[in-house]
Amino acid sequence: xxxxxYKNLFSGLTKKIKEFDINSFLExxxxxxxxxxxxxxxxxxxxxxxxxxxxxxxxxxxxxSIITILIFIPxxxxxxxxxxxxxxxxxxxxxxxxxxxxLKNKSLKFEEIKTKVTEINSSFISKxxxxxxxxxxxxxxxxxxxxxxxxxxxxxxxxxxxxxxxTFQKKSxxxxxxxxxxxxxxxxxxxxxxxxxxxxxxxxxxxQFLKEIQLFDVxxxxxxxxxxxxxxxxxxxxxxxxYDSLIIPLSKGGKPLISQDDVDxxxxxxxxxxxxxxxxxxxxxxxx
Length: 288
What we know:
Number of strands: 6
Strand content: 15-25%
Mean pLDDT: 70
Helix content: 40-55%
Radius of gyration: 51 Å
Number of domains: 2
Shape: rod-shaped
CATH class of the largest domain: Alpha Beta
Order of helices and strands: HHHHHHEHEHEHEHEHE
Structural class: alpha+beta
CATH topology of the largest domain: Alpha-Beta Plaits
């Protein structure tokens, strides 16, 4: 019964809305004057509105509209945001394989760099471990048939000339002295230590000795060598002859910086046999 009444009410309301003449209503509003507003019986107007059969449905529709707006507008925004996120996730999921591959490549590169850095760091010894260099040199000397005479540190390396140029090299046309820029002492974790090693050996054994010390796991850099030939002489005139020593700078790889022509000249001017050799080594170490 109530449902039927509501149907009749809505049908009547719909009919009234259809019969409502908006043009005449607007015309009356235009012609409305202040005196007309004063003459309105507001008590009667409010009474008619309060007792009108359309009041409750109108309030219900208005309230339902407000509630619908308040509920569905945030929901629409949430749905829109969800669609945006879904679209973004879809795009990122397609690119996920590429990102994973890039991450693996970067991880491999990082591990490779980490391994190399670890190897480099392990090649630097501490100040307390420098004493063990003598043991390594002794083992290398036995392997290459070299007899070590002395191993001493060079204390004042800044003021002393570690690698000099011999008279023989000054006269050589192929020899070119390399001017080095002055090095200033740098404060840091690494400290450069210089040592002088003197030994006796055959000239070919010197080359083998230099090759062997490059195989150390410790960072040892030969800077230069000075070779003095031990010539045996029987006559007094030969004993009075002074033989110039040959100082050979070394490359970063420990190889002598000397041409084949100079090697041939050495073989001509010096007799076969043992030679006295002075070698300057640079051994970097951690300060702590």
